[in-house]
Amino acid sequence: MNALAATNRNFKLASRLLGLDSKLEKSLLIPFREIKASKIASCVECTIPKDDGTLQSYVGFRVQHDNARGPMKGGIRYHPEVDPDEVNALAQLMTWKTAVANIPYGGAKGGIGCNPAELSISELERLTRVFTQKIHDLIGTHTDVPAPDMGTGPQTMAWILDEYSKFHGYSPAVVTGKPIDLGGSLGREAATGRGVLFATEALLNEHGKSVSGQRFVIQGFGNVGSWAAQLISEKGGKVVAVSDISGAIKNSKGLDIPSLLEHSKKHKGVKGFHGGDPISADSILVEDCDVLVPAALGGVINRENANEIKAKFIVEAANHPTDPEADEASVVILPDIYANSGGVTVSYFEWVQNIQGFMWNEEKVNNELGNYMTKGFKDVKEMCKTHDCDLRMGAFTLAVNRVARATVLRGVTSPNVANINKWVCPLRVCDDGGSKREDKPIGGGGDATRVAPVQWTSGVQFNGGLAMDQRPQIGRSVVVFVTRMVCEESRERDNRTDFRLG
Ligand SMILES: NC(=O)C1=CN([C@@H]2O[C@H](COP(=O)(O)OP(=O)(O)OC[C@H]3O[C@@H](n4cnc5c(N)ncnc54)[C@H](O)[C@@H]3O)[C@@H](O)[C@H]2O)C=CC1
Ligand SMILES: O=C(O)CCC(=O)C(=O)O
Q1: Does domain 33-183 have CATH number 3.40.50.10860?
Q2: Where in the chain is the domain with CATH 3.40.50.10860?
Q3: Half-sphere exposure of residue 282, counting CA atoms within 13 Å on the CB side?
Q4: Are 226 and 234 in contact (CB under 8 A)?
Q5: What pLDDT score does 467 carry?
Q6: Residues that bind substrate, according to the entry (predicted)?
Q7: Going along 376-472, which residue ranges are E strands?
Q8: In ligand 1, which atom is closest to the CA atom of 269?
Q9: pLDDT digit string (tens) for 135-155?
Q10: How many whole angstroms from its chain centre is CA 237?
């Protein structure tokens, strides 16, 4: 299943569990904006030729999926297989990821179809600058904030920052994942891997285990995979096999990760490492282990290999590594939108530091990250309980509920009672500490049978009478019926005329 079909499917399953209105469901699926910058390095677009004097065209993308909860946020990927559908899926995943992490962002993703390994540093710089020239008026500190993803890193962010600042003045918060010298956050480079460690600890603890003594297999040894390997082994986890684009190696006694890191830096890959035996890159996913950590490409766990996987747990460090057809496999899967949210969470800290003009120390960054990851796991588990579903649907229902709620609240323009019964969506407002749940809607009709917990937002006021400005008492749940009328004529999300509440 392609990445977009898979992501849409997971969203729709969550939406059905939540009982979302079909119009709202459709609206949440459609991206806010898709940017396709074609021929960005052609003679027309780019005045700087390749190093050998020839001209080369590349296609760049930025998909802005949703901004209901805040500025859109997501990485930029440089990879030969970047295509519009994949970027679209990754942008949508960012919307759900920032919502699971409960950070004030929406979702976006970008990329350029290129092989960064075949470009010189100056070619990469020119390509990045031309791409930035194409999208500079569509990104910004409070609109859309890019960050690194596969094939990009702090240097790429520094070029974007510099090029963007030529148009808009010095703007450090326009990108995150920057070099520390340019306002990057301490701890951001390791953050996705560290988040993977925290997520894995939370999952294993729940199963009465700890990282120490567990056997791990990691696919991908770039930013995310290598940091995850390092931090897991520091905690006593045994990394028994690792792969990257150059090859795969195995040592059932546990690989020496610091030596492997050194080797990989020197030889640009794990291939040829003497502390392990070479194995086929394809077999890495079905190696015997306790925890499998895919940290490279999407769609690698699929119908073909799902039943051969020996791991008891899969922690999705990569984005959408598991095809929906493999979700049925008898293994516990910790989904990407929670498991790899450590990167964007520390990106948020970086953005906050840039806006405040105040730098945090690394201990504070890592401690705060730990708090967010712990809370995220608790929130996901709560949704699993409410909807009697697996961890992926727990994460999706949590995210979709938060985004839907923000969308509806922002869409309130005026009370309109004419079509009050056209469609009814219950939003259950409860406080976090409430253990006694009233599942009966209070003071409303409608045909809704399912209510889902959402986080209490104080001080929110519906125009036209329904006020939610008082925190409910501990242990008490309040159900608010939000009735919406859809303006059939307008599907334009920009001006927010879709939804009116009465
Ligand atoms: N960098 C970040 O902060 C975040 C990254 N992610 C996701 O994590 C994954 C990895 O991203 P990064 O580590 O940043 O990228 P990276 O570019 O630093 O590393 C990618 C790694 O994957 C390996 N790889 C590529 N093709 C492969 C193949 N066919 N088989 C095995 N290994 C292969 C590369 O050799 C490299 O080791 C991606 O799915 C990305 O979207 C998710 C959240 C945040
Ligand atoms: O750090 C960020 O803003 C986004 C990282 C990213 O692209 C991702 O989580 O997939």
Answers
A1: yes
A2: 33-183
A3: 4
A4: no
A5: 29
A6: 73, 97, 347
A7: 423-430, 453-455, 460-461, 467-468
A8: 35
A9: 999 999 999 999 999 999 999
A10: 25
